[in-house]
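ESCALATION

Customer reports they have been waiting on this structure for their group meeting. Please prioritize. Original submission:
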Amino acid sequence: MTLGDHAGTPAPDPARTGDPAVIITCLKRRHSGVSTTISALLPIQAGRRAIGYVGPDLPGVEQARAVAPDAFTRLTLAEAIRLSLRPLADGRPRIWHVRRDVEMMLGLVLRDVLRRPIRLVFTSSAIRKHSPALNWLIGRMDRIVATSPAAARFFPGADIIGHGVDVEHFRPARQQGDLAGDAPPTGPRMIGIFGRVREEKGIHIFVRALLPLLPRYPDVTAVIGGLCQSDDAPYAEGLKREIRMAGLEDRFVWVGEIPPGEMPEWYRRVAITVCCPLYEGYGLTAIEAMASGCAVVATRTGAFASMVEEGRTGYIIPKDDHPALSGALEKLLTDPALCAQMGRLGRERACALFSIETEADGLERVYESVWRERDAART
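Update from on-call: job pushed to the front of the queue and completed.
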């Protein structure tokens, strides 16, 4: 390296090197919406300050290492606990950012029983009342982050920070043929539903909404993508039986579990994404679909109503109402130009309001506020 090259290199930022100031936990092996959020946030957060991560392999782990090798540390749970024996070099407590019940319990043991110098930040997406025991746990957190106004109703004083997505990862096809692998299974127009195959996710509503529509639109294919666990196999078999009785087996494609890295590809394949659960805490699939250029039809649960702009980027329908879903889908199928326009406007809305950077900015403000409150309490 020449002297000139060295002179042009900025000095390391102390906040982004060495000792993790924030430890992010993901103590569940099976991939979920929480895992997706953490994975997307890791490289962004590691680019802003030193963080530690405790949990399974996620795509964001390697991305964080690549983006900020000096600021990102993969920790075992034992290593994270040992690290938390002491505060940061400047005396600040470490922040443990937790998202599950067991993680809250672990944090409380460390902070209140073992007297570790840590603070606890908990993110909640739930939009229903909690049990007294869970309310007690959540009430012991130093700060609560709610992902929507609906979730914040249960926690007065919570910070509201909606989830975001990587809008470069989830994006429309840039040009014709900008898709990996084979062409779509059949038909130039595809309608997709993605998530676990189980009753709560409303797969039956999707199927029953499409059974009367597909015979009238022979160029349309329905795609069902998601893991079906053994307990839910009878539910899936019942739906497949309904499809066979209607003679439409060749119009439904059951993809099975889709690896997280392949999800953007599937959103690019479909023109319309349906999100019709009976209950949803937040509903990241709608944002992923909008960022990918899909028109979205979603039920009135979770945070869908704050994501989808009615009549502009898609439609919001009542829960458990397959005739309403049929009606919304028919509007889009009969007007491809409207469907395409909604996809474009949805992309714009996702980029403006629901990027992963926006979520990371909000979390940074929460962390800084926790440390400021600690400093104020000492003065």
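Sent to customer with the following note: The two ends are 47 Å apart (CA to CA).
Escalation resolved.
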